[in-house]
Design brief:
With about 190 residues, the protein is an alpha+beta fold. It has one domain: endopeptidase fold (from Nostoc punctiforme), CATH 3.90.1720.10. The protein has a six-stranded antiparallel β-sheet. Strand 3 and strand 4 form a beta hairpin. The longest helix is centred in the first third of the chain and has 21 residues. It starts with 5 loop residues before the first helix and ends with a strand.
Length: about 190
């Protein structure tokens, strides 16, 4: 049996209190309710694992504006889709973001799930602003949790790379995309 001295008891209580504060603070990023796209406990677990691995990393935007990034992304409209692509010949969704941001001196990984770690999380669609990054799940079969990335244009529209249409503009109200919407992130303040 372990004997607890008053000092040891206080230490254990302080450690427990600190752990509780750390745990509760780390979960404040996400609202109590899950996005509509999270339909099962397994998906909720994947969301929690994603969040626990680190989110809301800063991205130095320098003097670049959201409109400048959007205008650069629009230059890719019509470019066909190809997995792993990052050129005007063909491009995928995360490649579009990586190339567009790189042209303004900002480095984003060429991976939707890793891109979602950058910027302040915007859980509610109604709070999105021009230039926010927008992320989706379950857009194709993969072991990855977050499967699609895009740039919000305002007026419920986003620019992204579609497998069938290439780089295109789509409404967030499109029923197929609504059911897959996860969250946005705010890069520009």
């Amino acid at each position: 049996m372990i004997s607890l001295t008053p000092g040891r008891t206080l230490s254990i209580l302080l450690l427990a209190a600190c752990q509780l504060m750390i745990t509760s603070c780390s979960k404040r990023v996400w609202p109590e309710t899950s996005p509509a796209s999270i339909e099962s406990p397994a998906e909720r677990k994947k969301l929690n694992e994603f969040m626990d691995a680190g989110v809301e990393k800063p991205l130095n935007t320098g003097s670049t504006t959201a409109d400048e990034v959007i205008n650069t992304a629009r230059k890719y409209l019509g470019v066909p889709h190809c997995m792993g692509g990052k050129t005007m010949k063909c491009i995928d969704c995360s490649g579009l973001l990586a190339v567009v941001f790189a042209s303004h001196g900002m480095q984003l990984p060429h991976n939707s799930e890793e891109q979602a770690r950058y910027g302040k999380i915007i859980a509610e669609r109604k709070n999105l602003k021009n230039g926010d990054l927008v992320f989706f799940i379950k857009t194709y079969n993969t072991s990855r949790f977050i499967t699609h990335s895009s740039i919000y244009l305002g007026e419920k529209k986003f620019i992204h790379t579609s497998t069938s249409l290439g780089v295109t503009i789509t409404s967030l109200d499109d029923p197929w995309w609504t059911g897959k919407y996860l969250f946005g992130t705010r890069i520009f303040h």
